[in-house]
């Protein structure tokens, strides 16, 4: 009898002839995330299994598997020989582990016979397993419509028995949709944007803009903590820390005050695009939501988009703040985002930012700066941190 995790995937089933590519990507992501815990990941007959871990680490292994994009369900299971006594004893054990037997309870057995050479059909397996359980658990009753507990038996190369399924995050395996660079602030929105694009299979790198001495070490530590939290879903993350102070100071000294925010966003996009081009990125990702602040009006977004050739992905564009916060809480970034720590976007904020900026005017204001030199200097000072699962 071997304890293991049985992995179920969802959307990958719809990929037709490309399904093997997506399955390999999912398996590789699982290996990458679970190898530090001593796990072995293998696939057989349309199922992925995680084995080899210390039973004391099962909760940690389960959490990492659940947080792997592409997985819709994770079932702690027992693998036994395809022999009735072993299968039914495993079913009884799984019910007991689930808490059944502490008073009256109802249950049902579900069976799937993938191995058609096995002599009993699914109905016979269910009936015999149910009888075995009833003989040994006198407070049990069968209820096939609304049972309190369900135990499932899959007859494959071996018999796999489980009694509950932990919900996974779904989506597509990270990397199958290419690579993107997220402009990661210390706020609530951009980590959620990174999460949502990684869920659609995009491998994510992050760019954060520092403005020392106006922003201090707490701001830097906060964004590193956010990247570490995202790593639990997105896998390894390379974080680029860009020194932005000189650019902001020149913007403040030379450009129209009402255009400061949109000009800052344009230069952030230019720098992020340069990093993306160097790293093989195919898109930029931001946490902008339409109308949330002055830099996120239709006009401001148009001026921002015009600063780069690369596609800018905005997965939060139609969401309100409450919806974004709900996701941030669910993925564990909200509490980090609300820690103290000045963000560079709060430095030199204009009193009356332009909500309907004109593109030609923005370009004229930008021409007051030596943009290429400023970007090159900022890139030269950029610090890179690679965060890996442990």
What does the radius of gyration come to?
Answer: 26 Å
Put simply, the count of helices is 13
Tell me the major beta sheet. Answer: 9 strands, mixed
Q: What is the H/E order?
A: EHEEHEHEHEEEEEHEHEHHEHEHHHHE
Give the overall average pLDDT: 93
**CATH fold description of the largest domain:** Rossmann fold
- Label the structural class: alpha/beta
Q: Number of domains in the coordinates?
A: 2
Q: CA-to-CA gap between the ends?
A: 29 Å
| Total beta strands | 15
CATH architecture of the largest domain: 3-Layer(aba) Sandwich
Strand content: 15-25%
What is the C-level CATH assignment of the largest domain? Alpha Beta
Low-pLDDT runs: none
- Into which percent range does the helicity of residues fall? 25-40%
Q: Sum up the overall morphology in one term.
A: elongated
Q: What's the CATH H-level superfamily name of the largest domain?
A: HUPs
């Amino acid at each position: 009898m071997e304890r293991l995790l049985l992995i179920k995937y969802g959307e990958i089933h719809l990929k037709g002839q490309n399904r093997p590519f997506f399955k390999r990507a999912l398996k590789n992501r699982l290996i990458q995330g679970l190898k530090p815990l001593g796990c072995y990941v293998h696939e057989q007959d349309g199922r992925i299994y995680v084995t080899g871990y210390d039973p004391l680490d099962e909760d940690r292994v389960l959490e990492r598997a659940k947080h792997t994009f592409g997985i819709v369900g994770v079932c702690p299971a027992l693998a036994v020989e395809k022999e009735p006594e072993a299968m039914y004893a495993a079913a009884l054990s799984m019910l007991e582990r689930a808490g059944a037997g502490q008073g009256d309870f109802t249950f049902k057995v579900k069976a799937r016979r993938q191995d058609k050479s096995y002599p009993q059909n699914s109905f016979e397996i269910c009936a015999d397993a149910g009888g075995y359980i009833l003989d040994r658990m006198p407070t049990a009753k069968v209820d096939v419509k609304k049972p309190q507990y369900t135990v499932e038996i899959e007859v494959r190369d071996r018999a796999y028995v489980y009694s509950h399924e932990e919900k996974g995050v779904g989506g597509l395996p990270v990397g199958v949709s290419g690579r993107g660079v997220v402009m990661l602030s210390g706020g609530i929105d951009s980590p959620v944007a990174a999460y949502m694009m990684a869920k659609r299979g995009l491998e994510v790198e992050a760019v954060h803009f520092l403005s020392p001495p106006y922003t201090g070490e707490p701001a830097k530590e906060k964004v590193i903590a956010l990247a570490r939290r995202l790593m639990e879903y997105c896998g390894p993350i390379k974080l680029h820390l860009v020194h932005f102070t000189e650019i902001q100071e020149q913007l403040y000294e030379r450009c129209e005050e009402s255009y400061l925010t949109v000009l800052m966003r344009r230069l952030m996009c230019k720098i992020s695009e340069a990093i993306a081009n160097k790293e093989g990125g195919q898109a930029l990702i931001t946490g902008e939501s339409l109308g949330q602040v002055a830099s996120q009006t239709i006009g401001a977004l148009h001026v921002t988009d015009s600063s780069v050739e690369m596609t800018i992905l905005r997965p939060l564009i139609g969401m309100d703040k409450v919806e974004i916060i709900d996701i941030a809480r669910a993925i564990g970034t909200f509490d980090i985002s609300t820690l103290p720590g000045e963000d560079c976007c709060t430095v030199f904020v204009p009193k009356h930012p332009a909500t309907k900026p004109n593109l030609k005017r923005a370009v004229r204001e930008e021409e007051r700066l030596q943009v290429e030199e400023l970007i090159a200097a900022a890139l030269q000072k950029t610090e890179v941190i690679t965060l890996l699962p442990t």
